[in-house]
Design goal:
alpha/beta; five-stranded parallel sheet; globular; binds nicotinamide-adenine-dinucleotide; Rossmann fold; seven-stranded parallel sheet; single chain; NAD
């Protein structure tokens, strides 16, 4: 099939070309994002392939439909950037890659927790400057900590399993508790109880209208003083301005973000020679107890191979008129 692949970097092209030897689709790579301004370039492509920060709103979908696109193939798990209702109205199918490597994201989450706790980011710089003082690098044992996991799907459950190995107590909150996870690893509690008890809170639920700004002023008030907050899910789960207040008051003692509300203006690009205009983001970077990675949690060799393979298989299913297990039907 003729596929317009938007928002690609050299590494995407390399993994897709390699996997496509098996599928034989006609892939045309664009480096820019799909949005209402660029959507006309998809004209006569029956399939568009997009990533987390492409903007597939109603306007984009209208233009895609005019250009005879019939399938939006997301090469990611989350689909909060697609107006599914509009896609359905215009008869455009939407498929995704529900699980490419939950281990990649879960392991990055743990890396962020350990880095923050043991101040590895600061120690790295100090030692390189010949400063071997330990002042200000005091950590705490993860063993014995209570960790609250919000969203116990594929990624959240792996985070819980790994942390059980560290000797942490796992509290969990999910709209649909997982029985096996509850039996082996975690105690499901209300969101309020999780906020009240957890030393570390890790977000693993999707961004939906219900979870938008789940971490707001009210939620922070309910948390323990000195809490560590990790978000490797979606930026919109956190009200960033409120988090800055929480950091200033030291209620939040540690914050790690792999995702950020306004990340589409920043992430995945080299802006090292530019002046960043986002003052909120720049304020976050001034805190010594904040670590930000640029939507990197998924970025392992294993995950990129799975992403390319599943995306191309989804497109083949569509081409052959087969029902695709990764189609997003219910929303
Ligand atoms: P999943 O669908 O397996 O699990 C999501 C869980 O969240 C489900 O158990 C669901 O019941 C729960 N949930 C839904 N609404 C909720 C709510 N209102 N409150 C509490 N729980 C709720 O998804 P996953 O594969 O574990 O991925 C989780 C999220 O991680 C994705 O939605 C995506 O946004 C994010 N993600 C980030 C990266 C990255 O590179 N940073 C990569 C992949 C996924």
């Amino acid at each position: 099939m003729k596929v317009a692949v938007f928002n690609t970097k050299a590494y995407d092209q390399s993994f897709f070309n390699s996997s496509n030897e098996k599928y034989g689709h006609n892939l045309q790579f664009f480096e820019f994002a799909l949005n209402p301004q660029s959507a006309t370039l998809a004209s006569d492509f029956p399939v568009v392939c997009v990533f987390v920060n492409d903007l597939i709103n109603r306007k984009t979908i209208e233009i895609l439909a005019q250009g005879k696109t019939r399938l939006i193939a997301l090469r990611c798990a989350g689909f909060n950037n697609v107006n599914l209702k509009a896609a359905q109205e215009f008869g455009i199918g939407v498929v995704r890659v529900p699980a490419y490597s939950p281990y990649a994201v879960a392991e990055h989450t743990i890396a962020l927790m350990l880095t923050l706790n043991r101040q590895i980011h600061r120690a790295y710089n100090r030692v390189r400057e010949g400063n071997f003082s330990l002042n200000g690098l005091l950590g705490f044992d993860l063993h014995g900590c209570t960790v609250g996991i919000i969203g116990t799907g594929k990624i959240g459950r792996i985070v819980g399993q790994i942390l059980t190995g560290f000797g942490c107590k796992i509290l969990a909150y999910d709209l649909y508790p997982d029985q096996e996870f509850a039996q082996k690893y975690a105690q499901y509690v209300s969101l309020d109880e999780l906020f009240a008890q957890a030393n570390i809170i890790s977000l693993h639920c999707p961004l939906t209208p219900e979870t938008y700004h789940l971490i707001n002023q009210e939620a922070i008030t309910k948390m323990k003083s000195g809490v560590m907050l990790i978000n490797t899910s979606r930026g919109g789960l956190i009200d960033t301005e409120t988090i800055i207040d929480g950091l200033k008051s030291q209620k939040i003692a540690y914050l790690a973000l792999d995702v950020y509300e306004q990340e589409e203006n920043l992430f995945f690009e080299d802006l090292s020679n530019e002046v960043i205009q986002d003052d909120t983001f720049q304020r976050l970077l001034t805190f010594p107890n904040v670590i930000i990675t640029g939507h990197q949690a998924f970025f392992t060799k294993n995950a990129l191979e799975n992403i390319a393979d599943t995306t191309l298989a989804n497109i083949t299913d569509f081409e052959q008129g087969k029902s695709c297990p990764n189609e997003i039907k219910h929303f």
